[in-house]
Write a structure and sequence with these properties.
- The protein is α+β, with helices and mostly antiparallel strands.
- The protein has one domain.
- Helix content is 30%, strand content 31%.
- It has 5 helices and 5 strands.
- It has a 5-stranded antiparallel β-sheet.
- A hairpin with a 4-residue loop joins strand 1 and strand 2.
- It is globular, with a radius of gyration of 15 Å.
- It starts with 17 loop residues before the first helix and ends with a helix.
- The mean pLDDT is 94.
């Protein structure tokens, strides 16, 4: 995992663009594009936001649904961070849903990530974080996002 000092996209006045992302990600940009193309099928909207504590731009993936009473609800499904040459996607689960995450139809490597993830915070959550340089882990990322969309909320 990366520390915050390696984060890129650190100018609060410059919203991330495709050109800026391609420059920072290099050959990993192809995986980023594949991930972005999967989002509409997952009914996810990705939004870039500046986070002052980290002094960097982060993208959050959100799912919006309308309740039977007409209220629009949103659910954060992942956080995306950009580093030099790669990006990370972190999907956070409540501890009570660890077993469901393990049943998400993911690889043994990802199941190990889920089992080994440390719980933190008052709400007892844990992150499953993927360092992405190629499209290979994206199937597991999308499976976990679908799982979280289904079980939490």
């Amino acid at each position: 995992m990366n520390n915050g000092e390696d984060l890129r996209l650190r100018d609060p006045k410059i919203t991330p663009t495709s050109e800026a992302l391609e420059q920072v990600l290099g050959s990993s940009y192809a995986a980023y594009e594949i991930f972005q193309s999967a989002l509409p099928n997952l009914e996810i909207e990705q939004q870039w936001q500046w986070y002052t504590p980290h002094k960097a731009w982060f993208a959050k993936g959100q799912y919006f649904r309308t309740t039977p009473r007409g209220t629009r609800k949103e659910k954060n499904l992942y956080w995306l961070h950009v580093f030099e040459g790669h990006f990370t996607v972190a999907v956070w689960f409540k501890e009570k849903n660890r077993t469901e995450a393990l049943k998400a139809g993911v690889s043994e490597k990802t199941k190990r990530l889920i089992r080994d993830a440390r719980t933190m915070g008052k709400v007892l959550t844990f992150p499953v974080t993927f360092d992405i340089t190629t499209a290979k882990p994206l199937a597991d990322v999308c499976s976990l996002i679908e799982c979280k969309k289904r079980i939490e909320g």
